[in-house]
Predict the 3D structure of the following.
Amino acid sequence: MKAAILGATSYGSRELIKWLLRHPAGVKLSYLGSRQEGMKVSDVFPVFEGVLDVAYQPHDPDAVPEDTDVVFLTLPHTVPMECVPRLLERGFRVIDFSGDYRLRNVDVYEKHYKHGHTDPANIEEAVYGLPEFFADEIAKAQLVANPGCYPTAAILSIAPLAKHGLIEMDSIIVDAKSGVSGAGNKPKPDYHFPHCNESVHAYKVGAHQHEPEIAQYLGDLAGAEANVLFVPHLIPMDRGIFSTAYANLKKAVDEEELRSLVTEFYENAPFIRVKQGENLPRTKDTIDTNFCDIGVRVVGQRAVVVACLDNLAKGMATQAIQNMNIMFGLKQTDGLV
Amino acid sequence: MKAAILGATSYGSRELIKWLLRHPAGVKLSYLGSRQEGMKVSDVFPVFEGVLDVAYQPHDPDAVPEDTDVVFLTLPHTVPMECVPRLLERGFRVIDFSGDYRLRNVDVYEKHYKHGHTDPANIEEAVYGLPEFFADEIAKAQLVANPGCYPTAAILSIAPLAKHGLIEMDSIIVDAKSGVSGAGNKPKPDYHFPHCNESVHAYKVGAHQHEPEIAQYLGDLAGAEANVLFVPHLIPMDRGIFSTAYANLKKAVDEEELRSLVTEFYENAPFIRVKQGENLPRTKDTIDTNFCDIGVRVVGQRAVVVACLDNLAKGMATQAIQNMNIMFGLKQTDGLV
Amino acid sequence: MKAAILGATSYGSRELIKWLLRHPAGVKLSYLGSRQEGMKVSDVFPVFEGVLDVAYQPHDPDAVPEDTDVVFLTLPHTVPMECVPRLLERGFRVIDFSGDYRLRNVDVYEKHYKHGHTDPANIEEAVYGLPEFFADEIAKAQLVANPGCYPTAAILSIAPLAKHGLIEMDSIIVDAKSGVSGAGNKPKPDYHFPHCNESVHAYKVGAHQHEPEIAQYLGDLAGAEANVLFVPHLIPMDRGIFSTAYANLKKAVDEEELRSLVTEFYENAPFIRVKQGENLPRTKDTIDTNFCDIGVRVVGQRAVVVACLDNLAKGMATQAIQNMNIMFGLKQTDGLV
Amino acid sequence: MKAAILGATSYGSRELIKWLLRHPAGVKLSYLGSRQEGMKVSDVFPVFEGVLDVAYQPHDPDAVPEDTDVVFLTLPHTVPMECVPRLLERGFRVIDFSGDYRLRNVDVYEKHYKHGHTDPANIEEAVYGLPEFFADEIAKAQLVANPGCYPTAAILSIAPLAKHGLIEMDSIIVDAKSGVSGAGNKPKPDYHFPHCNESVHAYKVGAHQHEPEIAQYLGDLAGAEANVLFVPHLIPMDRGIFSTAYANLKKAVDEEELRSLVTEFYENAPFIRVKQGENLPRTKDTIDTNFCDIGVRVVGQRAVVVACLDNLAKGMATQAIQNMNIMFGLKQTDGLV
């Protein structure tokens, strides 16, 4: 199998490369495109010295070799929409890490990403790459919109309750905590070590671009509009997302019953682990894995469902590989456990 | 002025000592009691070597010198109730850091602290040491129940809305994030560096002993029963609490108006800083200060009020000194800015 | 292939299990012994839930199944010497993570490990598991003494200079910095998060049990007694060792020449990466890999050679797998890149 | 007393302001100059909101008010030499945080700071602000060159041995470890949280601008040329420097004797704490204090002397206040304990 990556200098692409090199299908990297062309991959990621001693090629979608099977786009939001039409035309199957093809409503996209959308046609073609719900569509998709890290955690945690109609869909609050790698690799004052170390803060309260993504897919699952309040926080750690979701139960539910329901809901999902009894998940147990760990509590008339995952793995790179596995008829778990 | 400390080996007492030594009233430490009697203070806290070269005295409330003005109890929950009656009888004014005298309802105490209460009589005498609301009572109190770190942040953030009757008192959710010093200085697996570093998790979901403390005082302020869901999380940092409170607004409120209301509410509170405009607080800006920083957002029909403070300062030691200042007719800010 | 692990609850065994499960030779875990028998592996290491759902078996060397190919001992120092004789007698090949079989001189062992040695006979049989130097002996060994984390970094960095006779063997200083996982998984005051976070200190100055290990093997390589001063420091991070070695050059050497010499020295060592030009290594680029990265500087008449690696990988678990590969005729790099 | 600060947006000036505001001499900040003029101090340092609600004034040495007693320069290297002549002419006493006036030899300065020196005349007037050695000169100085953070730790640790002629002055190695705030507040790739967190590396090996500063003053103390090899490392923590110094002893010295000698050497130095017996210092015990903690070991024919301090306090801002105290006839410890 041959895979290309455009935008191959991001943290997400570093993880993608690491996991692809390990993949039992013998994935070959046919093209690593970047605006930092000419630099060696190991100059940007010294961890790959002696492992992948090649140089970046230009950031040029048209230069992706014809015999490439899958193209991963690990580019900043708004860049993929320039590349995707040309890649799809040439017949490539594409997995896009950005938000460009996740939202059905172009207006919502433009409002949250503060940028016009130049490829609305392909939004409809795109399949949301959350394999726990859309595996059949992913298998046939030419374009997969790989989910955001926050939405992966939030949707997976609330989905069973939404789908079973147990919660009031306008009562959902997601209070999320993320490690700093989620902000990318570009130095900025907010991510300067002496500034963000030993500190916590909230940002983009009720205004983060992942909020409509969560609402859209939870709404789909519930068959009803979802009103989600999403509040992200920055945590002084490299990786990991912890999502604490709150929702009002329509009627009293026993905690143990709710936990069983969530457990059964994910019975066939190899990467979802529902904690039993008193146990609650910790981000650390999911780092560098494709697992999303879920914990369930009922407090009075409210459900509290926590979920955690590695923002660069199940929240990004390994989820993309899970999608690739499905698209190419491999076992979902290939190269991921 | 002469101050005694019982339980003087905790992190809270370390901070208390540091700030007392700096106090312009020239506070003398008349007694430092501990079960580690005989050890030097600087053996436990090397930071005090050359600053406070004395040894601990026994943990014995009866040995507190007669001429002591104020006794701080920085003891584990359930120990203060053994000491307080004897100290009050001897006429000392007492500031207790534990939860023993914060809850009016003995049953609620016994349920949450899993321990019988042997001194219910003095619960009624105790004044809750949140100076922003109870300064007059604190001034006259013989026994001050110094608030918990989480409740200080949560109550201060929600109080203006509760007091003004703007929110549904059964809709309050407090999602809090705390540094590890909040768990005390005793090594346990959960606080072992390679275990809790680079990780986040929730604990005691809807079952933390600070939940009824928050509900009781918010209910008092609102003149209505408060139903609070409190979910604490452990964050890999030494100090700091970030509290994110959610509540349904009874009717639509403009964000700027709400912010003005909160700002005015704390007009005369020297240690509350309400962030204006787009600004939101960060724990780091409150560390080693007695400030509680507050940020206000309105999202749809919900208010989101965030607050942060140093769990060992405004959440504990400096708040105690603020109480001491008030009790002894000093300026509230003496030794604290 | 079948592998057993005794002492399978340590951080080292967690990493060992992770890498063995991924190994292309299809390594089966035939026995996971622990004094915490009965507990599930995923109770101790939740990261393995859904991956390895088995319970620990008793800590009993005699219970290791007959058809096991290799037994890994991830036990505390002094325990392996009780197990090794019985395991060797039964014909197993053994890779021991402890210091029990690394030092030729029993007196030196007893002095540094503060414990009598009950199996001196097998010390002579043991091969030191540093594949860069002893691959041929490892291939034939029944008992491999897997090196310590500090010595792996220190020896690998200084070896080329020692072997080429470039440095004064009594001038070697190794100033090493280690993440906290090197101290094991048992909570102690020194490793309590609020105590060791945001702090650095030196410990066991010139008295660490790894000092004679470094000296012994460097002496062997140089064919002359080595006098090494070893000073370890604890760093607030989970994993990683950074070793800064200083030695007096016997005669002036050009830095570029010395770098070339070190580079050539490791030409056939797939896991040693010698940084070229101005580049110096960082621990982070070696974490979760079997690489040891080396940097070379000449300052006046002194050589400064830095090395870094993951204390739980090349400093422990993956080095053990590299040894296993060699012992069983596999490619050294199998399952490790 | 009136103090001005030029360059008042650096981490060092934040600490300086904090300690000055607390100073018992009632220090008034007469001028806070910065190129970020017009911004409020609390915009740059939110910790000062409600404490110091003023705006920055222009970066203009000539605008410093006439009645200012002392001018602190917390500017980047090479900027002070433009301001100092004008400030001295106007009669101000100046404490400069930069390296501009620390090195006697202009060539050495120009080589290490890669910048011509435009004010060599005043280098000779400047007194090195290490109060443990130069208190008399500081008392009379118009220009004090406040020492670098690394040199403060290194010189203080080695000085007693150098002064007593116990060590070979060409054998000194200083292996230092610093928190990230030492690198300043400007975001760069090396200090981007996900890059430098959980990692250690060495930098500027034998080429750091603090090396000649250490050598010059140790040489002075010994009355002999000092050859110092200085190797700094970056540690994932906010603050703190740990310096591990190695030197060959001219003749055998008993460790306890050496410790007594160092202890006596600093008998009258209120901010030096020499650890006794088995104790060794930790950076954390010096953070936010003006203390430098020292530990002494003898291993064979070598002395190992470790020292730690807060790079922003004794390594910068509080040392400057200690100097100010001395310059203005105050008690050395005023406002510092």
